[in-house]
């Protein structure tokens, strides 16, 4: 195994010497204990200097060591030194220079072979700071781990480096890529991006970031990767252009591109985007691998990068270092420290030229450059080594001399495993060194990222502006409401751009045609009563529910009933109110003219009952409006049927009375029974009581209450629990009353109309029958409680109005507009030979005789009624004659006797005078 490892070392050295054709430059300073450094100074070709920020970090390590040496509280009487090599950001160069930190004594190849350092005599190091790239960090960590030499990186973020079996002596000052990827995913969730393209470096940094990103999306089925492109240093520009062109082809909806790349790869992509005229079409999201400072982005690419959102590791400003660095850049060689940076002169020349043409002076002589350069992390890395060594010295002094430093440490051996344990303890929060780190609150391993946007500072300069923070505990917080996006969204300049494969479906649509990753779909409408479940399933609501406005959940249906403000209710209320007023006026007229002959002749008591029924019909209409309650249900179920019964029971009683009177008058002079006014009232009340008993029985069987009915799914109606059986039985009783009224009206059609009002009764009941023939089918066949209530209300209004129109309005007209002496109606007979027959109509003398005889009979009847000299039989009959019927009686007598030898006494025949 030792032989194989030696071969690897030799091959690595061969690559450095022969492939790169350079001699290793070293920036070093001697000391009692040496801290190694592996930092990238030159670009990957090992020929050209990188950005100025590289020099910042290089000098930051030297500055931190000198700071420790100037302190008396840390490592007293001990001097630290450093030895820094360039990695060129390449693994072969990194491995070759890493071997220079391995002590000769630890390489034992046996008696016949040895590996020698070809460059110079080495001095052992206690640990190494570096490297920046994850790929070079893995190469160095594996090699150093064999010899238990710690490697502490301030930028390497690959998740693979957390493997303690492969990299047992690796530590870093930053969280892994896995957390950075979480921050990127949180950014996608925040702005609703579910379809993005990814460009990643072909090294471990890019591939590990992509793997972590894909892992994060494993459980986020609504997020997908569109274009996926790997780039390295040797990727031809034309290939990059093809990838960018493919991204642009989807940029109408998928505008976000994530770059998990190194700085040089990012610049290559930005150059291609500039060539493809992608500015304003693509929104770039960058990782911390590039654009840590504006110096990492080439000047020609900065306009394309404007508006890009980047994840950045939080850093701190170090003003003391900035003073140190500025002095270093403007100092003459004679004033420089004794151990000179071998690359310093080259940087001075390069950036002096930049400053002459007006660029870069702010980076050399300005302020604030230490934070974006990551200087504080390099300084903290050096401090970790110093504090861990100080801890070992304390333990050694306590163990050997039972005292605190300084003490004689000539025999102190910095053993790698023990030293690494001290390093691990030092960086933990709460250690006694926590407050000595550059980062606030001593949080060296802060698990957070800052979000920054690249924006234009002036016409020629660009800057990074913080817009938010992501940390493991508090997740994402956007602190800047007006973000200058690279691609403005649809809502304005500061709205986020869209990035999706398919447009979100509108409410009530589901996604179809999707695969395992739910990013691209078609929108298919659900049914009107369906809600959308998980955006992919149409689920119907229950019968008593309807979808809410968002179509995501079902909500109970608000029961339907007739509100007072509904148009139909307003119309019915107006009509009903007019009916109530008319009924009330009719009642008042009847009361005021209670002894008017025509009022007396119309069975006043029964008329009052009928008016009460009409008023009940109209009043019932008001109970149909508003939210049903138990009280209103009692009123509706009982009152609806009683309103009709109160109207037609007295009417039937009146018609039956007329029929019995004239039928009995033809057979005998004996007065028929139960024809007095109060007898008629009792008979009417008995008929009404029957309906009341029917309603009461149904109320006991099924107590009135409001119930909800579902005539169709999604529609709930609130109504009283009127069963069809109850309605049929109660209606049947009322129909029987109306039919009997019709029968009596038909039978009495030939009696004098001015006595029994048979014509008006006929018109009333026949019209009512027609209305009911329409009402009953409508009620039982039309679905919907609201419509049924309207039908019931209309039936009540029409029934009441018909009764008023035919049974009361003619009398009211006659009372007010016809003289009392002329209140009569022509008696009519439909039989051949009657007075109204066409044959008799031509006899001119008949009219004169009829009028004269009517006057004589009327006078005689009145005289007999008031006289006590009339014979007992005649007086007995006459006493039964109500004045309300005298005119009608006269006409009756005239018709029955047909003018045949009538005498006043015969005109008052008992058979004719029964009223």
TrEMBL record:
<dbReference type="InterPro" id="IPR028082">
    <property type="entry name" value="Peripla_BP_I"/>
</dbReference>
<keyword id="KW-0732">Signal</keyword>
<feature type="transmembrane region" description="Helical">
    <location>
        <begin position="727"/>
        <end position="748"/>
    </location>
</feature>
<dbReference type="InterPro" id="IPR011500">
    <property type="entry name" value="GPCR_3_9-Cys_dom"/>
</dbReference>
<dbReference type="Pfam" id="PF01094">
    <property type="entry name" value="ANF_receptor"/>
</dbReference>
<feature type="transmembrane region" description="Helical">
    <location>
        <begin position="674"/>
        <end position="694"/>
    </location>
</feature>
<feature type="signal peptide">
    <location>
        <begin position="1"/>
        <end position="19"/>
    </location>
</feature>
<keyword id="KW-0325">Glycoprotein</keyword>
<dbReference type="Pfam" id="PF07562">
    <property type="entry name" value="NCD3G"/>
</dbReference>
<feature type="transmembrane region" description="Helical">
    <location>
        <begin position="760"/>
        <end position="782"/>
    </location>
</feature>
<keyword id="KW-0472">Membrane</keyword>
<keyword id="KW-1133">Transmembrane helix</keyword>
<keyword id="KW-0297">G-protein coupled receptor</keyword>
<dbReference type="GO" id="GO:0004930">
    <property type="term" value="F:G protein-coupled receptor activity"/>
</dbReference>
<feature type="transmembrane region" description="Helical">
    <location>
        <begin position="568"/>
        <end position="591"/>
    </location>
</feature>
<keyword id="KW-0807">Transducer</keyword>
<protein>
    <submittedName>
        <fullName>Metabotropic glutamate receptor 2-like</fullName>
    </submittedName>
</protein>
<dbReference type="GO" id="GO:0005886">
    <property type="term" value="C:plasma membrane"/>
</dbReference>
<feature type="domain" description="G-protein coupled receptors family 3 profile">
    <location>
        <begin position="568"/>
        <end position="831"/>
    </location>
</feature>
<dbReference type="InterPro" id="IPR038550">
    <property type="entry name" value="GPCR_3_9-Cys_sf"/>
</dbReference>
<dbReference type="InterPro" id="IPR050726">
    <property type="entry name" value="mGluR"/>
</dbReference>
<feature type="transmembrane region" description="Helical">
    <location>
        <begin position="606"/>
        <end position="628"/>
    </location>
</feature>
<feature type="transmembrane region" description="Helical">
    <location>
        <begin position="634"/>
        <end position="653"/>
    </location>
</feature>
<keyword id="KW-0812">Transmembrane</keyword>
<dbReference type="Pfam" id="PF00003">
    <property type="entry name" value="7tm_3"/>
</dbReference>
<keyword id="KW-0675">Receptor</keyword>
<dbReference type="InterPro" id="IPR000337">
    <property type="entry name" value="GPCR_3"/>
</dbReference>
<dbReference type="InterPro" id="IPR017978">
    <property type="entry name" value="GPCR_3_C"/>
</dbReference>
<feature type="transmembrane region" description="Helical">
    <location>
        <begin position="788"/>
        <end position="809"/>
    </location>
</feature>
<keyword id="KW-1003">Cell membrane</keyword>
<dbReference type="InterPro" id="IPR001828">
    <property type="entry name" value="ANF_lig-bd_rcpt"/>
</dbReference>
């Amino acid at each position: 195994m030792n032989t194989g490892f030696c071969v690897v070392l030799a091959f690595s050295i061969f690559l450095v010497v022969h492939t790169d054709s350079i001699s290793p430059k070293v920036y070093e300073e001697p000391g009692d204990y040496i801290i190694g450094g592996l930092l990238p100074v030159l670009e990957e070709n090992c020929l050209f200097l990188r950005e100025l920020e590289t020099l910042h970090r290089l000098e930051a390590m030297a500055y931190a060591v000198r700071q420790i040496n100037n302190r008396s509280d840390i490592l007293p009487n001990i001097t630290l030194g450093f030895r820094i090599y360039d990695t060129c950001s390449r693994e072969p160069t990194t491995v070759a220079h890493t071997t220079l930190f391995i002590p000769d004594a630890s390489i034992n190849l046996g008696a016949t072979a040895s590996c020698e350092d070809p460059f110079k005599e080495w001095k052992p190091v206690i640990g190494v700071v570096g490297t920046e790239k994850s790929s070079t960090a893995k190469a160095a960590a594996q090699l150093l781990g064999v010899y238990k030499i710690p490697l502490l990186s301030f930028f390497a973020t690959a998740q693979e480096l957390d493997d303690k079996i492969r990299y047992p002596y690796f530590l870093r000052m930053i969280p892994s890529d896995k957390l950075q990827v979480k921050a990127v995913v949180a950014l996608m969730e925040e702005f609703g991006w579910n379809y993005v393209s990814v460009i990643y470096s072909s090294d471990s940094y890019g591939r590990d970031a992509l793997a972590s990103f894909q892992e994060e999306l494993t459980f986020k089925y609504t997020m997908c990767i569109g274009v996926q492109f790997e780039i390295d240093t040797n990727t031809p520009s034309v290939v990059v252009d093809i990838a960018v062109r493919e991204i642009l082809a989807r940029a109408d909806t998928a505008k976000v591109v994530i770059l998990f790349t190194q700085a040089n790869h990012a610049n290559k992509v930005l150059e291609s985007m500039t060539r493809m005229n992608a500015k304003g079409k693509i929104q770039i999201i960058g990782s911390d691998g590039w654009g840590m400072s504006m110096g990492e982005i080439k000047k020609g690419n900065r306009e394309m990068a404007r508006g890009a959102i980047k994840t950045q590791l939080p850093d701190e400003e170090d003003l003391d270092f900035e003073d140190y660095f500025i002095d270093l850049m403007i100092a003459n060689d004679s004033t420089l420290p004794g151990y000179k940076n071998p690359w310093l002169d080259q940087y001075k020349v390069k950036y002096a030229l930049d400053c002459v043409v007006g660029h870069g002076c702010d980076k050399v002589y300005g302020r604030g450059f230490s934070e974006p350069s990551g200087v504080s992390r390099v300084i903290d890395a050096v401090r970790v080594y110093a504090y861990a060594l100080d801890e070992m010295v304390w333990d050694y002094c306590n163990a050997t001399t039972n005292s605190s430093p300084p003490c004689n440490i000539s025999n102190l051996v910095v053993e790698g495993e023990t030293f690494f344990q001290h390093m691990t303890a030092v960086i933990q929060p709460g250690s006694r060194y926590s407050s000595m780190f550059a980062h606030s609150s001593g949080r060296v391993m802060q698990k957070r990222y800052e979000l920054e946007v690249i924006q234009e500072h002036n016409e020629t300069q660009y800057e990074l502006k913080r817009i938010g923070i992501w940390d493991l505990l508090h997740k994402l917080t956007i602190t800047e409401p007006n973000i200058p996006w690279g691609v403005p969204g649809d809502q304005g300049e500061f709205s986020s751009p869209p990035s999706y494969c398919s447009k979100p479906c509108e409410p009530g649509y589901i996604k179809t045609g999707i695969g395992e990753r739910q990013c691209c779909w078609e929108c298919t409408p659900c049914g009107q009563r369906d809600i959308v479940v998980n955006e992919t399933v149409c689920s119907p609501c229950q019968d008593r529910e309807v979808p809410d406005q968002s179509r995501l959940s079902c909500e109970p249906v608000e029961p339907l009933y007739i509100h007072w403000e509904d148009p139909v209710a307003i119309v019915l209320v107006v009509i009903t109110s007019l009916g109530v007023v008319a009924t009330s006026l009719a009642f008042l007229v009847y009361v005021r003219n209670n002894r008017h002959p025509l009022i007396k002749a119309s069975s006043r008591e029964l008329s009052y009952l009928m008016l009460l029924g009409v008023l009940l019909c109209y009043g019932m209409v008001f109970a149909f409006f508003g939210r049903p309650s138990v009280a209103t249900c009692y009123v509706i179920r009982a009152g609806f049927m009683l309103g009709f019964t109160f109207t037609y029971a007295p009417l039937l009683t009146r018609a039956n009375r007329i029929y019995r009177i004239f039928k009995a008058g033809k057979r005998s002079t004996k007065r028929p029974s139960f024809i007095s006014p109060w007898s008629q009232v009792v008979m009417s009340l008995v008929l009404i009581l029957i309906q009341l008993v029917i309603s009461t029985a149904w109320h006991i069987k099924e107590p009135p209450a409001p119930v909800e009915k579902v005539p169709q799914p999604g529609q709930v109606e609130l109504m009283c629990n009127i069963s069809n059986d109850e309605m049929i039985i109660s209606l049947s009783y009322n129909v029987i009353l109306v039919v009997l009224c019709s029968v009596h009206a038909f039978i009495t059609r030939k009696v004098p109309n001015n006595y029994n009002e048979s014509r008006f009764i006929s018109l009333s009941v026949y019209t009512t029958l027609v209305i009911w023939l329409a009402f009953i089918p409508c009620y039982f066949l039309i679905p919907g409680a609201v419509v049924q209530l309207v039908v019931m209300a209309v039936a009540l209004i029409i029934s009441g109005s018909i009764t008023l129109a035919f049974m009361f309005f003619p009398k009211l007209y006659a009372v007010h507009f016809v003289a009392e002496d002329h209140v009569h109606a022509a008696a009519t007979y439909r039989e051949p030979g009657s007075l109204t027959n066409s044959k008799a109509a031509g006899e001119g003398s008949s009219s004169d005789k009829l009028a004269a005889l009517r006057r004589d009979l009327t006078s005689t009847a009145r005289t007999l009624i008031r006289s006590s000299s009339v014979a007992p039989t005649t007086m007995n009959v006459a006493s039964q004659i109500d004045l309300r019927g005298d005119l009608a009686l006269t006409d009756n007598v005239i018709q029955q006797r047909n003018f045949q030898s009538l005498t006043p006494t015969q005109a008052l025949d008992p058979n004719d005078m029964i009223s």
